[in-house]
Amino acid sequence: MILDAAERRAQVLGFNGFSYADVAGELGVTAASIHYHFPAKTDLGVRLIERYTQRFLAALAQIERHPDGAWARLQDYAGIYERVLAEGRLCLCGILAAEYETLPERMRGPIGAFFGANEDWLTAQLSEGRQAGVLAFEGEPRGVAAALTGALEGAMLVARARGGAEAFVSTSALALRSLCQPLSP
Predict the structure, then answer these.
(1) What is the pLDDT of residue 163?
(2) Predicted confidence band at 167 (pLDDT cuts at 50, 70, 90)?
(3) How far apart are CA 47 and CA 4, in angstroms?
(4) Measuring CA to CA, how many Å separate 157 from each of 56, 95, 152, 167?
(5) How far apart are CA 22 and CA 105, in angstroms?
(6) Phi/psi zone of residue 69: left (φ > 0), alpha (ψ -120 to 50 degrees), beta?
(7) DSSP annotation string for 97-162
(8) Among 9, 24, 37, 65, which residue has the least CB neighbours within 10 Å?
């Protein structure tokens, strides 16, 4: 419950945008009870990132089983971001990356690890798609993976100010097509 409430707040307001008192108020408990489980807000932040990363990687493992190949998996990947945005939230690690310089050092490594894991997964999809002859793109798969991650994270931020999920859908579709064009059979 604590992690769910804190994650919702962080995805909307950022990590610096909420306090233990906010979470306690939402849950109808005292701030002391939050401190019992997470003595410092940094402890809470690290746990939020770890849990979010685990769930995201589980979602990627599910997408990995998509029988229609790399292009369909890339579209499903963008769909994760779209669903989060449709709920009025941002990617937890994306919003934390925006606050990176103000976050405790212990939170920074796990944020970088989240993006590294995403880029590893995308690199594998892009490599597979290129090798199978279903994707075409310039450059190395790792660089395209980093560009795609940045494009989707940035599209979430901008879409928040420009129309929400609908704005994101058109931008993410364009990013996918421009960075990793599907080849016709």
Answers:
(1) 77
(2) confident
(3) 11
(4) 19, 8, 9, 10
(5) 23
(6) left
(7) HHTGGGS-HHHHHHHHHHHHHHHHHHHHHHHHHHHTTSEE-SS-HHHHHHHHHHHHHHHHHHHHHH
(8) 65
Torsion sign across C-alpha atoms 18, 22, 27, 30 = positive
Quote the CA–CA distance of 167 and 86 in Å, as a whole number: 11
Q: pTM score, two decimals?
A: 0.92
Closest CA to 143 of 156, 157, 130: 130
Q: Give which of 84, 89, 85, 66 is closest to 76, Cα–Cα.
A: 66
- DSSP bridge pairs for 182: 135
Phi-psi region of 18 (alpha: psi -120 to 50; beta: other; left: phi over 0): beta
Q: How far apart are the first and last CA of the chain?
A: 48
| Count of all residues that appear for the chain in the document | 185
Instruction: List, for residues 44-72, the tens digit of each pLDDT value.
Output: 999 999 999 999 999 999 999 888 899 99
Handedness of CA 121, 89, 3, 112 (dihedral sign): positive
